[in-house]
Amino acid sequence: MADRPPEQARRETPLERADRNFAELLQELRVTQTGVQILFAFLLTLAFTQRFPTLDTVQRATYVTTLLLAMLAAALFTAPAALHRSLFQQNAKPAIVKVSSRLATIGMGVLMLAFTGSVLLVVDVSLGRVAGIAAGAGTLLVCVGLWRVLPWVVRRTVLLPRQTSGGPDDREPPEGPR
After folding, report:
1. Res 61: pLDDT
2. Under a CB-based contact definition with an 8 Å cutoff, are residues 7 and 17 in contact?
3. Which residues neighbour 98 within 8 Å (Cβ) at sequence distance 6 or greater?
4. Burial status of residue 45 (CB atoms within 10 A of its CB: 0-12, 13-18, 19 or more)
Protein backbone atom coordinates (compact mmCIF):
# COMPACT_ATOMS: atom_id res chain seq x y z
CA MET A 1 0.00 0.00 0.00
CA ALA A 2 2.91 2.38 0.69
CA ASP A 3 4.15 1.80 -2.87
CA ARG A 4 1.00 3.24 -4.44
CA PRO A 5 0.28 6.93 -5.08
CA PRO A 6 -1.71 8.56 -2.25
CA GLU A 7 -4.99 8.66 -4.19
CA GLN A 8 -4.76 4.90 -4.84
CA ALA A 9 -3.64 4.09 -1.29
CA ARG A 10 -6.61 6.05 0.07
CA ARG A 11 -9.00 4.89 -2.65
CA GLU A 12 -10.59 8.32 -2.78
CA THR A 13 -12.46 10.01 -5.58
CA PRO A 14 -11.26 13.39 -6.91
CA LEU A 15 -14.01 15.10 -4.89
CA GLU A 16 -13.04 13.23 -1.72
CA ARG A 17 -9.42 14.24 -2.32
CA ALA A 18 -10.50 17.87 -2.76
CA ASP A 19 -12.47 17.69 0.51
CA ARG A 20 -9.47 16.21 2.33
CA ASN A 21 -7.05 18.71 0.81
CA PHE A 22 -9.30 21.62 1.79
CA ALA A 23 -9.62 20.30 5.35
CA GLU A 24 -5.82 19.99 5.58
CA LEU A 25 -5.36 23.49 4.18
CA LEU A 26 -7.84 24.94 6.67
CA GLN A 27 -5.94 23.28 9.52
CA GLU A 28 -2.69 24.84 8.26
CA LEU A 29 -4.40 28.22 8.05
CA ARG A 30 -5.72 27.91 11.62
CA VAL A 31 -2.17 27.47 12.90
CA THR A 32 -0.79 30.34 10.82
CA GLN A 33 -3.71 32.70 11.42
CA THR A 34 -3.09 32.78 15.17
CA GLY A 35 0.42 34.09 14.66
CA VAL A 36 -0.77 36.66 12.14
CA GLN A 37 -3.50 37.89 14.48
CA ILE A 38 -1.05 38.29 17.38
CA LEU A 39 1.46 40.13 15.18
CA PHE A 40 -1.23 42.40 13.72
CA ALA A 41 -2.63 43.22 17.17
CA PHE A 42 0.87 44.00 18.46
CA LEU A 43 1.52 46.31 15.52
CA LEU A 44 -1.82 48.08 15.93
CA THR A 45 -1.06 48.92 19.55
CA LEU A 46 2.42 50.31 18.86
CA ALA A 47 1.11 53.56 17.40
CA PHE A 48 -0.58 54.33 20.73
CA THR A 49 2.49 53.93 22.94
CA GLN A 50 4.32 56.87 24.51
CA ARG A 51 7.53 56.09 22.62
CA PHE A 52 5.94 56.05 19.13
CA PRO A 53 6.29 59.83 18.53
CA THR A 54 10.07 59.49 18.99
CA LEU A 55 10.48 57.12 16.03
CA ASP A 56 12.47 58.49 13.13
CA THR A 57 11.29 58.50 9.52
CA VAL A 58 12.83 55.10 8.66
CA GLN A 59 11.30 53.49 11.74
CA ARG A 60 7.87 54.94 10.96
CA ALA A 61 8.12 53.76 7.35
CA THR A 62 9.14 50.30 8.57
CA TYR A 63 6.22 50.32 11.00
CA VAL A 64 3.61 51.32 8.41
CA THR A 65 4.98 48.88 5.83
CA THR A 66 5.03 46.04 8.35
CA LEU A 67 1.51 46.87 9.57
CA LEU A 68 0.21 46.77 6.00
CA LEU A 69 2.05 43.50 5.30
CA ALA A 70 0.49 41.93 8.42
CA MET A 71 -2.95 43.12 7.29
CA LEU A 72 -2.36 41.69 3.81
CA ALA A 73 -1.21 38.37 5.29
CA ALA A 74 -4.35 38.22 7.45
CA ALA A 75 -6.51 38.96 4.40
CA LEU A 76 -4.77 36.28 2.33
CA PHE A 77 -5.14 33.68 5.08
CA THR A 78 -8.85 34.40 5.60
CA ALA A 79 -9.66 34.60 1.87
CA PRO A 80 -10.08 30.80 1.51
CA ALA A 81 -12.95 30.85 4.03
CA ALA A 82 -14.61 33.72 2.16
CA LEU A 83 -14.06 31.97 -1.16
CA HIS A 84 -15.56 28.75 0.18
CA ARG A 85 -18.53 30.63 1.65
CA SER A 86 -19.14 32.45 -1.65
CA LEU A 87 -19.01 29.27 -3.71
CA PHE A 88 -20.63 26.93 -1.17
CA GLN A 89 -22.61 24.07 -2.75
CA GLN A 90 -21.76 25.13 -6.30
CA ASN A 91 -19.57 22.10 -7.12
CA ALA A 92 -16.44 24.24 -7.05
CA LYS A 93 -14.41 22.45 -4.37
CA PRO A 94 -11.42 21.53 -6.61
CA ALA A 95 -11.16 25.14 -7.80
CA ILE A 96 -11.56 26.43 -4.24
CA VAL A 97 -8.73 24.15 -3.10
CA LYS A 98 -6.42 25.24 -5.91
CA VAL A 99 -7.04 28.98 -5.46
CA SER A 100 -6.92 28.71 -1.66
CA SER A 101 -3.61 26.89 -1.82
CA ARG A 102 -2.17 29.70 -3.95
CA LEU A 103 -3.55 32.33 -1.56
CA ALA A 104 -1.94 30.52 1.39
CA THR A 105 1.40 30.28 -0.42
CA ILE A 106 1.35 34.00 -1.19
CA GLY A 107 0.27 34.67 2.40
CA MET A 108 3.31 32.80 3.71
CA GLY A 109 5.59 35.01 1.60
CA VAL A 110 3.87 38.16 2.86
CA LEU A 111 4.00 36.88 6.44
CA MET A 112 7.73 36.27 6.01
CA LEU A 113 8.15 39.95 5.12
CA ALA A 114 5.92 41.07 8.01
CA PHE A 115 8.02 39.02 10.47
CA THR A 116 11.17 40.53 9.00
CA GLY A 117 9.85 44.08 9.29
CA SER A 118 8.63 43.53 12.85
CA VAL A 119 11.97 42.22 14.04
CA LEU A 120 13.80 44.95 12.14
CA LEU A 121 11.68 47.64 13.80
CA VAL A 122 11.87 46.32 17.35
CA VAL A 123 15.62 45.69 17.25
CA ASP A 124 16.25 49.02 15.50
CA VAL A 125 14.38 50.87 18.26
CA SER A 126 16.02 48.77 21.00
CA LEU A 127 19.62 48.41 19.83
CA GLY A 128 20.10 50.63 16.78
CA ARG A 129 19.84 50.55 13.01
CA VAL A 130 22.72 48.17 12.25
CA ALA A 131 21.49 45.61 14.78
CA GLY A 132 17.96 46.01 13.44
CA ILE A 133 19.03 45.36 9.86
CA ALA A 134 21.08 42.35 10.95
CA ALA A 135 18.18 40.93 12.99
CA GLY A 136 15.74 41.56 10.13
CA ALA A 137 18.06 39.85 7.65
CA GLY A 138 18.48 36.94 10.06
CA THR A 139 14.72 36.63 10.42
CA LEU A 140 14.29 36.60 6.66
CA LEU A 141 17.00 33.94 6.27
CA VAL A 142 15.44 31.72 8.94
CA CYS A 143 11.99 31.98 7.35
CA VAL A 144 13.33 31.34 3.84
CA GLY A 145 15.35 28.41 5.17
CA LEU A 146 12.47 26.77 7.02
CA TRP A 147 9.61 27.64 4.68
CA ARG A 148 11.26 27.40 1.25
CA VAL A 149 14.62 25.64 1.37
CA LEU A 150 13.67 22.86 3.80
CA PRO A 151 10.61 21.76 1.76
CA TRP A 152 12.74 21.89 -1.40
CA VAL A 153 15.40 19.67 0.24
CA VAL A 154 12.80 17.20 1.51
CA ARG A 155 11.20 17.07 -1.94
CA ARG A 156 14.58 16.44 -3.60
CA THR A 157 15.85 13.87 -1.10
CA VAL A 158 12.67 11.99 -0.21
CA LEU A 159 10.05 12.42 -2.91
CA LEU A 160 12.04 12.64 -6.15
CA PRO A 161 14.09 9.44 -5.63
CA ARG A 162 10.82 7.53 -5.11
CA GLN A 163 9.27 9.03 -8.24
CA THR A 164 12.27 8.33 -10.50
CA SER A 165 12.80 4.76 -9.33
CA GLY A 166 10.49 3.50 -12.07
CA GLY A 167 8.03 2.13 -9.55
CA PRO A 168 4.37 2.90 -9.08
CA ASP A 169 5.22 6.38 -7.75
CA ASP A 170 6.80 7.37 -11.08
CA ARG A 171 4.47 10.31 -11.59
CA GLU A 172 3.76 13.78 -10.27
CA PRO A 173 2.14 13.77 -6.80
CA PRO A 174 -1.44 15.04 -6.68
CA GLU A 175 -1.93 18.78 -6.18
CA GLY A 176 -2.72 19.51 -2.57
CA PRO A 177 -2.32 22.23 0.02
CA ARG A 178 1.01 24.00 -0.01
Report:
1. 98
2. yes
3. 175
4. exposed
